[in-house]
């Protein structure tokens, strides 16, 4: 069985090419083959959005360990979001050196605002009770 997460990453096209090369060196890595990969251009910047649904994202796997190294060494930075099976298991990293990499993650701001509003309303209701 195992523990699964949903993972989303954005990098520039140039950094994605390096990620591909790094993954090819592993040999039989299927990490990128099972991902949903979308290229997008924002303000003249070529970017890549990588998404895995229900993946065992653990550094015990060579492909994941290599991906993490590639992200750390990316020239333009990256944005990383992982949502685990447990509701409190959320990981977010942003080392983006260009704003365009944040494009796919603006929904997080809206989620944060909605959650704050829900929690504030619950506090008001508790205070009134």
Shape descriptor reads globular
Strand order of the largest sheet: 2-3-1-4-5
Please tally the β strands and state the result: 5
What number is the mean pLDDT? 90
- Give a quick account of the main beta sheet: strands, pairing sense, barrel closure: 5 strands, antiparallel
Portion of residues in beta strands equals 25-35%
User: Secondary-structure element sequence?
Assistant: EHEEHEEH
N- to C-terminal separation?
45 Å
Low-confidence stretches: none
Helix fraction, binned, reads 25-40%
Query: Pairing-aware structural class of the strands and helices?
Result: alpha+beta
Description:
The protein has 129 residues and is of the alpha+beta class. It is built from three helices and five strands, in the order βαββαββα. Helix 1 packs antiparallel against helix 2. The radius of gyration is 17 Å and the shape is globular.
């Amino acid at each position: 069985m195992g523990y699964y997460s949903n993972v989303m990453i954005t990098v520039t096209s140039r950094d994605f090419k390096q990620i591909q090369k790094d993954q090819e060196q592993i040999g039989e890595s299927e990490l990128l083959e099972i991902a949903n990969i979308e290229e997008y251009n924002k303000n003249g910047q070529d970017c890549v959005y990588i998404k895995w649904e229900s993946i065992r994202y653990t550094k015990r796997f060579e492909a994941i360990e290599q991906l993490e190294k590639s992200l750390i060494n990316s020239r333009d930075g990256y944005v990383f979001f992982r949502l685990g099976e447990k509701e409190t298991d959320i990981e977010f990293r942003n080392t983006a050196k260009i704003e365009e990499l944040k494009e796919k993650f603006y929904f997080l701001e809206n989620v944060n605002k909605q959650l704050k509003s829900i929690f504030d309303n619950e506090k008001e209701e508790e205070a009134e009770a």
